[in-house]
Amino acid sequence: MISICIIEDIPDIREGLQAIIEGDARFNLLRCFTDAETAIAQLPALQPDVVLADINLPGKSGIDCVLEMKPVIAQTQFIMFTIYEDNDQVFEALKAGASGYILKNTTPEKIIDSLVELYEGGSPMSPKIARKVLSVFKTPAPEQSVNELLSKREQEVLELLSKGFLYKEIADKLSISISTVKRHLNSIYTKLQVQNKVEAVNKLYNRE
User: Fold this and answer.
1) Residue 172: enclosing H or E segment and its boundaries?
2) How many other C-beta atoms are found inside a 10 Å radius of the C-beta of residue 137?
3) Rg of the chain (C-alpha set)
4) Tens digits of per-residue pLDDT, 158-196?
5) Of 30, 34, 91, 163, which is least surrounded by CB within 10 A?
6) Which residues lie across from 82 on neighbouring strands?
């Protein structure tokens, strides 16, 4: 069961998300928060698999929350849920450590799919957001230093990850196990001195 916390200050939206999540047997809703400060205080004890966070919160923003929490609960995956789709907000969230970014007009079915995808190692994004991200990361060739640092197989894993493939899909494409994919990723993070896949992809495409 996927454990989830919500950070959303607007009651109608928060209650709607709560109903969506509680209506699916794959999810366990641990707690709903109305501000980032309370979430920051309580998330380390809860250790949720996924945090669904609004960006525009009273006081600290959802991005501030991710920035503070990601080093503390590194295994927790954060997905931003917001009305914003401009580049600054997108990349601030990704740089902070978020692994997904969906808009508030996303359908309930897609919200559920996105939460499952995130838990399984993907990086779900609304189509408009994904196009913006891809347009920025379209650089012809990986930087040479990354090629020198990584083995051929590690490069293959990282390039597939940068294209949005899930761990299982990478494993199938390379005819290796999911645990081997994760082992390669741990090695990649160590060699590139990064903490997550967003930072690794930034290094691959020379966007530090």
Assistant:
1) helix 167-174
2) 14
3) 17
4) 989 888 899 999 999 999 999 899 888 888 888 888 888
5) 163
6) 103
The residue whose two tokens read 């691959």 is: 204
* Structure tokens that stand for 177 in this block: 């196990």
| Residue whose C-alpha is closest to residue 99's, from 115, 112, 86 | 115
Q: What's 70's DSSP letter? A: T
Separation CA 56–CA 36 (nearest Å): 10
CB 85 within 8 A of CB 126: yes
pTM of the full predicted structure?
0.64
**What ranges in the chain are assigned the alpha helix state H?**
11-22, 36-46, 62-69, 87-96, 108-119, 127-137, 144-149, 152-162, 167-174, 178-192, 197-204
**Three-point CA angle 76, 199, 176, nearest 5°:** 75
CB 4 within 8 A of CB 27: yes
**Which tokens in the block code for residue 15?**
């209650």
Residue in 79, 90, 86 with CA at minimum distance from that of residue 123: 79
Residue 95 in tokens: 């740089």
Q: Is 147 exposed, middle or buried (0-12, 13-18, 19+ CB in 10 A)?
A: middle
